[in-house]
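Appendix C reproduces, verbatim, an entry submitted by the partner laboratory led by Prof. M.T., so that reviewers can inspect both the input and the predicted structure.
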Amino acid sequence: MGAGWAILAGYAALLLLLLPLQSLWLDELMEVVATAGLPLHDVVAGYAAHSAGQSPLGALEQAFSIRLLGFSAFAARLPAAIASILGCAGMLVLSRKAGVQRAWVALVLFASLPLVLRYGAEARPYSQALCIAVWLTVLFLDLLQGPALRSFTIYAALLAIGLYTQPFVLFVAAGQAFFLMVRKRWALLAPFSAVLVVATCAYLPWYFHSRGYWKQEIDAAQLHFHLQARLALLIPRELTGAGYVGALAVVLLAVYGIPCLRKEGSDWLLWGAMILAPVCLAILADFVFDYFFAIRQVIFVLPPLAMAGAAGLERMYKERGARLAVTTATLLVALNTGYAIHWFTKPRENWAAAAQILKRSASSGGCFLALPSGSKVYYEFFQPTLKAYECTEADLRKRSAIALAVSPYLVDRESDIGTEGKLRAANFKLLDKTGSAQPQVRLYVREAEEH
């Protein structure tokens, strides 16, 4: 496994270099605003109120990182990066247990998936949940070899940690339980089911505390579930982060290789269940709780997909020849790399830059408005002094300049039109705007003072 650990070291170095590369986008900024500078109790309490369907452990990890290193994109994203590195290390261990002869092949395939790299460099808790899913599977293969109280205890603790990180991690265990049931492993299924019950009960206090807040946010932000035909297209397009071609290539390799994953009591059914269960159960949960579907909810399929895909490449190497296997692997990694490069180099929203523009405008005798109004907290996070320059109704009569910051996620077009109409009615004229930069800042001046 020497090559595997060398590749892991290279991945770790690349990931750490990527952390400060991009500005924080809205979902990351929502996390950071909830974790930076607040007491830990308030971090947890606030997290329930603004993160429907989420759990607080990732926020606490981020809070500790920011307190230790000071606020920066690097510090906010560091817990996710560490989890991604640990998850990749788990893939090396899992490969050996699953019967993949060249563990580094599974690691390269897994780490090259654009979705894995993206969440490893993002200030949200999905990389942590993915890491836990990998190590839950490692523990499950240990249980297949010989049930032991120690293994059950560790599994239960890790699953509870997973639920408090991202609750859909439960669907990994559900796929494993399905395997035990179909294979009639009753002696293992009974204590394993007890472990699932214990871990789920440990999560219930957070669920009962948060469910009211979740419903409020879903209703306020219109995050309702919609079962549409395009869902069948969205999943394969976004499954790996490499579009339809990348997802299809990995799935075909996985189908080809899954019969080869026969070691330590596992077989094709286990890996198939761990691929299908997270997808089916995530859609079912979204339907039951009326929450919109997002691909991050099913990222737990990536470890078994990569494992089966690596087995497929090894089978291709043995049965079809080295040239075809190497060419296939090279093209797939190149495709994944291309999508990853595009993700990390495409234009990004920059709330800090917009906040700087607002501060410059406000300091010269103006004030600012934000659309939607709730987004003002994100500008004030980067420039706290902006709190003193929020526009009031009186400012429409006495200010000479007003800066309007428009979020790229504004969906209420009527609110935008209405605000601009109000400014024109107060004799303001649009003087300048920040082009295509997001969020867009529009500078209005009182027309009489422009001449």
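The chain has a mean pLDDT of 91. Additional entries are available on request from the coordinating office.
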